[in-house]
Amino acid sequence: MLRSYCILSTILIAFLLSGCAGYVAAKPNQEVPTHTPRLISNTSPANCPVTVPQNPPFMPPPPYDKLGFEGEFWYGSNSLWTEVRQNGIWEALPHNPEGYTQKVFWWRNGYVWTDEPEPALTMTAERLDAKVPIVSASKATNAHASDIGSAMLVGIDLPSLGCWKITGKYRDAELSFVVWVAP
């Protein structure tokens, strides 16, 4: 009986001590190190009208209708389309002295990447929740891979976080969408 009591006591003490494993004792006049995780919201603020899927949803022509990326939806028309994040948020973007960098793919029915290595696509960004100058993107380039087909690619550096309207223009087509740029 005593032996059973000792074993039970040992197990109980081990269990209680295991709950203290993450505790850090501070020495006098020493701060206890803390870690505050960076929270990234998966929603945008109410004052940022992020783009939602069209109703009915846009479906690009073949072969693009079989392509796509998880967590994104097709947006636009056969004249010009792109993919937009389901939650409307561009988060954890690379940051450099010019701002937060994002690359955007654009498609157009009939665009052939080998025929137009530097497509005449322009892209701008306008901040909707603050007054800042309109930002112009880099020159467009062509892109091709089995998971994206024949596409146009543009990189942009957004100088700040916030609510941004992105506009692409290619030949006779123009398309805009809104995203929330989060840390």
How would you summarize this macromolecular structure in one to three sentences?
With 183 residues, the protein is mainly β.
Fold and architecture overview:
It is a single chain. Strands 1, 2, 4, 5, 8 and 9 form a six-stranded antiparallel β-sheet that branches. Strands 3-11-10-6-7 form a five-stranded mixed β-sheet, with no helix packed on it. The protein has one helix at 2-18, and strands at residues 72-77, 80-85, 89-91, 95-96, 99-107, 121-127, 135-136, 141-145, 149-158, 162-170, 173-182. The chain has a domain at 64-182: Immunoglobulin-like (Sandwich), CATH 2.60.40. It has 183 residues and is mainly beta. The protein is built from one helix and eleven strands.
Using only C-alpha atoms, the radius of gyration works out to 26 Å
Spatial gap, N to C terminus: 61 Å
Characterize the largest beta sheet: strand count, sense, and whether it forms a barrel. Answer: 6 strands, antiparallel
| Fraction of residues in helix | under 10%
Q: What is the class of the domain at 64-182 in the CATH system?
A: Mainly Beta
Total count of strands: 11
Oligomer: single chain
Based on secondary structure, the structural category is mainly beta
- Shape assignment: globular
The name of the CATH architecture of the domain at 64-182 is: Sandwich
Poorly predicted segments: 1-41
Q: Kindly state the mean pLDDT as a whole number? A: 80
User: Helix count, per DSSP?
Assistant: 1
CATH topology of the domain at 64-182: Immunoglobulin-like
**Which band does the percent of strand residues land in?**
35-45%
Order of helices and strands: HEEEEEEEEEEE
